Amino acid sequence: MNLKVAILGTGNIGTDLLIKIFRSPYLQCTLFAGRNLSSKGMLKAMSFGVPLSDKGIDAIIENPTCCDLVFDATSAASHKIHAPILKQLHKIVIDLTPAKLGLFTIPSVNLAEALQYDNLNMITCGGQASIPIAYAISKIVKNIDYIELVSTIASKSAGPGTRANIDEYIETTEKALSHFSGCKTVKAIINLNPAQPSIDMNTTIYLKIDEPDMHLISVEVKKMVEVIQSYVPGYFLALEPVYDNGFVILSIKVQGLGDYLPKYAGNLDIINSAAIALAEEFAKNKEVIYDK
After folding, report:
1. Residue 187's closest CA among 223, 151, 232?
2. What amino acid positions are annotated as catalytic residues?
3. Can you say whether the dihedral through the CA atoms of 44, 168, 270, 92 is positive or negative?
4. pTM
5. pLDDT tens per residue across all 292 residues of the chain
6. Cα 114 from chain centroid?
């Protein structure tokens, strides 16, 4: 039997998650909850025959057996309200907001550790794209003095939730980057590009390193890219690592699957694909859930 999951939040992220869940052989969406039954996301879910509710988290409170795992695709502020409630209800929570309450989770880096926790924070889209690369490099380079991430996404792929959480996005990305890389001085920047046609997500990473072994760095980066591609097929190196003026520089491009949003919305696709990969791992290890 597939793992029963609920989605809180019926916007772009929640609706894209719903479609990905329907394609998963391990997951079953048993509740799609928001606040507006006439929203585009709700109408899409209705066409799939998914149980709907406009009561938000109250739908889970009133029927706690409806699910074992909850995707929170609302906002950082809302998740801070939801988290203690869902913990009391003994639910596994995969948080797609930058609330940073749970364990920072990147499937290609700490998947096994994540299975021991009941609240997993998926950081941010830019974090999912770039932090595993910084982590891979940090394993072989111990003297990274500074890391800067610059993510550029299409304006059309940044909905109201993304725009409302820009400050939290930057703070959470920087905190997670420092956590996984061990570098204390980091910076994250996000640019919303209104160009037409809309651009794919692109993240450039700058790492200040003295006398790096570029061959070894390239090998480790390519290994990590292959791991990420196992759950994000549209993830690839747009610029392979180069060394210029004291910095190792590389760029990542992410193209989405086009499930609900256009393929250029790789920023939403990567965090959702990472969340699905995590949920599927819980589904494969159901005893982990029932032991919590």
Report:
1. 151
2. 125
3. negative
4. 0.94
5. 799 999 999 998 999 999 999 999 999 999 999 999 999 999 999 999 999 999 999 999 999 999 999 999 999 899 999 999 999 999 999 999 989 999 999 999 999 999 999 999 999 999 999 999 999 999 999 889 999 999 999 998 887 767 877 888 899 999 999 999 999 999 999 999 999 999 999 999 999 999 999 999 999 999 999 999 999 999 999 999 999 999 999 999 999 999 998 999 999 899 999 999 999 999 998 765 555 5
6. 14
Within 8 A by CB and 6+ apart from 208, the residues are 144, 145, 146, 147, 246, 247
First to last CA, the chain: 19
Question: What are the structural domains, with CATH classification, of the chain?
Answer: 3-122+272-291 (3.40.50.720), 125-263 (3.30.360.10)
Distance CA 259, CA 278 (A): 19
